[in-house]
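Revision sheet: structure tokens.
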Amino acid sequence: TFDLDPLVKNLTVGVAIHAPNFIGAFLDETSLTRFFAIETYFLTAMATVGVGYRPLKWLSFGAGVSYIYVMFQQYKNMLLPGVDEFKVKMDGTDHDAQFHFGVLAEPVKWLSIGVALNTRANLEIEGDANVWERSRETSSEPLIRMRHQTAMLIPMKVMAGINIHPVDWFEFGIDYYYWHYSVFKVQTTDLIFSDDANPFLREQLENMDMDAPRHYSDSHAICGGVRFKIPAPFPIYAMAGAQYDWSPANPKYVTLDAPYT
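Predicted:
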């Protein structure tokens, strides 16, 4: 964080690198779960630049932009007519931008109220998609090489919070989060074949439905926390908090690579 007050009064700039999302499953390739996931994950990393400006003593505005980099892998077994059971591994990356806006009000010394918004990011993950016989290692030459395009998203997020600091040694806060997940109905995957792809395997794969129904609903979370200042020669704080959230996943469409969480 950089305080630019000497140059521009009441202006602060911050830079952050973080990984807010990691969802995955790493399971035994000999169990029945292999038809859902063997090594599957979705990782999001962000680099964010934000600016805060305080035009009034009790009012601040913030805005920022994040560069989003996404890594995706789906490795599982499937059943294909004429080939029996086979391994399929898809991986890929994509990047996009997300914008952030916020307002913080401190009408009295002991009270802070904040509201923030993160915009939606649409992802079109593209990468390799290869197929092997079940008995073959994924390091060997695949039966067929393809490319894939998988559509995913990071939903719009709204946050609001209140913090009360009635005395010097105690404060508590409550936060509310909302994710607009209801727009995520289907995770679509399109396969792209080379001209020299095996005609039989290509026909079988083209007839398979690679899309994954999600039918998510909007998600919410409520958080609360307290902080105590412990009497000591130097500052020591004790903190505790709890959170309750509602899953966006539809129980009818829960899978190991998209769990009920």
